[in-house]
Please model this.
Amino acid sequence: MTHIRKTMRIGMASVVASGLLVFGQQAVAEVTFERLLNAQSEPQNWLLPYGSYNSHNHSNLSQINRSNVGDLRVKFTQAVGGSHGNKGGTRHQQAPAVDNGFMYITNAWGLLFKIDIRSGSRGEILWINDSEPESARRMRGIPSLLGNHVYVHPSYYEARLLKIDANSGETVWDMSTTAPVEEAGTADTRHSIQPLAVKNQLLVGATGGVRRNFVAAYDADNGDLMWRFYTVPAPDEPGGQTWADDWSAYLTGRAAIWTQGSYDPETNLVLYGTGEPGPWRDASYRPGDNLYTNSVVAIDVDTGELEWFFQEIPNESWDYDTVNPRMLYDIEVDGVTRQLQGNFSRNGYYYSIDRTNGDFLYAKTYTVANWTAGLDPKTGLPVEYNPNELIQTYAPGMALIAGDPTSAQNVCPYYSAMPTFQPPTYDAGRMTAFIATQDGCFSPFQVEPFAHESYVGKSFPDIEDGNNQGPQVGAIWAVDVRTAEMVRSIRTEIPHYSGTLGTAGDLIFTATLAGKFSAYDKDTLAELWSFHTGTAITAPPITYAIDGRQYVAILAGGQDRSGNARRPELKLLQQAPSVFVFGL
Model:
């Protein structure tokens, strides 16, 4: 791939290497690994995805609180481009990073912006790095800050990792992250999330397509590959026997990495949730448990070795991936302090897993989940799971059987309605986790099974399939992490698709597909404030402070791809991607 380098003058601005637009030079403080480890002690900044390595997506800022949030006003907006109308395919699901008054944000077309936000009343673009990707679609997470550099994947469709000078905006290096075809099953490596900086390396996750996906680590100095862990094991690796076919289904097994990981410095493990197996609508094509799909995997950051895993649904058939961010916290269970990871799964259950060894502790439903009669309290597996069967059916009539139109009728929950990339928030004082998303049921179908042959290096054939989607509504759930019991919830007419930000001001912020950005009381879930942006929101909010004044920011201008766009109140919304910044 060739990337054009160009130089020209535009008034006081200059366009330099790699399509870089520079509107002034601004030095930034070095972002050390020590700062990242203690990111929560810098609530004025937003240095990591979900605010910290523990993925609480919670801020200690409290200047904006439930007594004054009604006075919140727009302070400024900043357009970031990338709009191609309502049918452009760009989803704008990313959030900005903020470091000492400077904001870094990508758009869905591969541009990285550095914006001076120190005035609190306007944003001044200092430079734009344009790596000129040949195609684009979406990117999730925030740009990765480490040292005096910014690291990004510029495009979903191009396997590239860029190191960019945070002061000048110039590209230092542009590395390919494509996995070997003989290992991955295809040359089509994709990334939908930004890298995660840990120590002196960048952790990247692969996703999408017909392939084996992976987590890999690259050296932050020179871009060298340090290790790669495939989320679908090869036949001669532990777990390889769980793909019990003779047509190499493991090479099209997926187990995608859709969200940035959570890092535990005590164990030196990074935890990722993985996606569904492929093809998800036909479990008979991939007999066996299909490790490590629908799982949480704990990987040693230094070696890339798998330390433990927990699979929620072996051989599943509803696209119930479990990729929502893993919240790390320590709580007392049965009189003993346990180091846990908690997560909202797309299958309708909230799980509590020991993050040191992967032991299942407990899980409860937070919405209707009729695909199983329940979970085994000892193993955490569905009670219908039979280890002696290669094809699992779970609750009677609920499993999708390719070619059987009577199967999988009115299955709850609908996979597209449940939490995927939308971050939850954890309030340690209340020991409560919150998530804002959507809720409903569906009836998936596939007219015929896939032929038992290898699809390595090619797409699955065009076989008629689809979903009969039921009514979808918005929902906010609050779960007591000590028991996994839901303690309160509300429904809203329009679905949420942006995730949930919590603050020490007793507030949670979230947004809807209709462009409504709202603040809710943590204790009652009463809506206390809202603002209509006029364009769909599919990105999570963040908060930061400048000179002691708190602000809340969100990227508006997303695109819904879940079927809700057919709703009369949503189908005419246009994309107009801009960062909205609010303050008192």
